[in-house]
Amino acid sequence: MNLRPHAGLARVLDDLGGTLLDLVLGDGDPPGSIGGVAIHDPLDEPALPQNALVLGVGLADPDEVVRQLRTLARRDAAGLVLRAPVTVTAAITAAVEETGVALLSLARGASWTQLAAMLRSLLAEGDVGDARRETLAGLPSGDLFAVANAIAALIDAPVTIEDRRSRVLAFSGRQDEADPSRVETILGRQVPERFARMLAERGVFRELYRSDQPIYVDRPAGSPAGFMLPRVAVAVRAGEEILGSIWAAVSEPLTPDRAQALRDAARLVALHLLRVRAGADVERRLRADLLSTALEGGPAAREALSRLGLADQPVVVLALAVLETGAADAELAAGRQRLSDGLAMHLSAVHPRCAAALVGDTAYGLVPVTRDTDAEQRALRIAQDFLDRVGDRVRAVVGIGPVARSAAELPEARGSADRALRVLRSGSGAGRRVALLADVHVEALLLELQDLVAARGDRPTGAVARLLDYDAQHQAHLVETLRAWLDAFGDVIAASAAVHVHPNTFRYRLRRLAEVGGFDLTDPEARFAAMLQLRVVAPPPS
């Protein structure tokens, strides 16, 4: 349930217009609220909420745009967003007039994922709690865009509200009065690294977080005129905790009255940020509980899927994990949660009914599919695209299960995803970051055999045991030689190169290990038994 009414198209254009969105054709203030955001998918037509705003990712052909406008009109959509620049033809103009579906453009340089996140924040989708409208100081609770606009009106300057990592949480209107650096910040939804570094080197963040008063930040010496205006910033606190900051683009220091207004506004922003955080925590817990219930199967799974909007829908299970980095537990837990939130956002851009949440130390995603033939490969591409976007900042891996056609099949699909994920986490996946269980089935079986061996306390036997004992007593390398020879399928040249010895030396060691271990190198059963023991029972190579 939502804590406040959804915004209309006019509100969306007021808050995001001029920076992210522009109205190309149509009525910018139609009646009714925007019911939600959906992604255009030509291969899998999404379910649309009433008065949806549809993101036309990859849609550019004028004839296809006309067809989509007419299709969306039949489905009661409010608007269609295309990547700028939009080619406006007579047919498109006529279609907009005929259908009443507004045509908007997304600024070049802004990502679709960013737009979806901004719209979700603005429309308050997914809030959990009481359906009553709640306010803080007369503004809808948690509506940071409304707060930003109110602050801009109080101090007569465009503002951004940012978190501790200089990520933009919301921004006011009138950003066209700011400067190119502010536009770049909003388009990237993050203060660019070079600006953040410059502010840190000048000691701005240190001063900002040490004071409860607004500070004036003059533009850097030597910067091009008009490229960067001065800023006034104030920290947003909840007790001793720094939640973020407010940044206003100004031409001169604020008057005392406006500086006091900004300081007072910081307290209000703190309340809204705490409300947003509390709501997000509640939603995360709820979605994690529902997802966990669905993945476990049983009588409650169908109801959980229904509440997630996935009843009677075939899905593919994704399992995402962060590889251990030696970071502190708290830092690792925060990293997992950020990655889980990122996965949820990424999947929502793929399909509006995707579900994702952190369960334990693994983030699970459910991706609805319509066809079994290429569903797993499509899920693999989605996961790979997500990890490519994350880049090298976080070392993460994703296991993918088979299609689950009903709630009863979800536990098996989750188990398959977990098995593939375990292989990737163990480093046995040949460098893969994403894998289907079919890709790493043998490696998964070997890990499970290792579990069985460890539980029973089995030790090496036969030829392998004799070679291990001989190496321990004589500091020899017979086990290493056998392992290399088996891995190279009996190719002495390749095996000797792998252990960095001359081929003749390697041949001598082969003869010696056959004598010491009583090992028949020509017997395929003996070779298989040795290979299995070396992989599963014997200690790993040093």
Automatic annotation (TrEMBL):
Boundaries of every CdaR GGDEF-like domain copy: 300-423
Leader peptide range in chain numbering: none
Pfam families in alphabetical order: GGDEF_2 (PF17853), HTH_30 (PF13556)
Domain of life of the source: Bacteria
InterPro entries referenced in this protein's UniProt entry, alphabetically: CdaR-like_regulators, CdaR_GGDEF, PucR_C-HTH_dom, PucR_C-HTH_sf
Domain PucR C-terminal helix-turn-helix: 478-536
Family the entry assigns: Belongs to the CdaR family.
Record-linked PANTHER family: CARBOHYDRATE DIACID REGULATOR (PTHR33744), CONSERVED PROTEIN (PTHR33744:SF17)
Protein name as it appears in the record: PucR family transcriptional regulator
UniProt organism field: Amycolatopsis mediterranei (strain U-32)
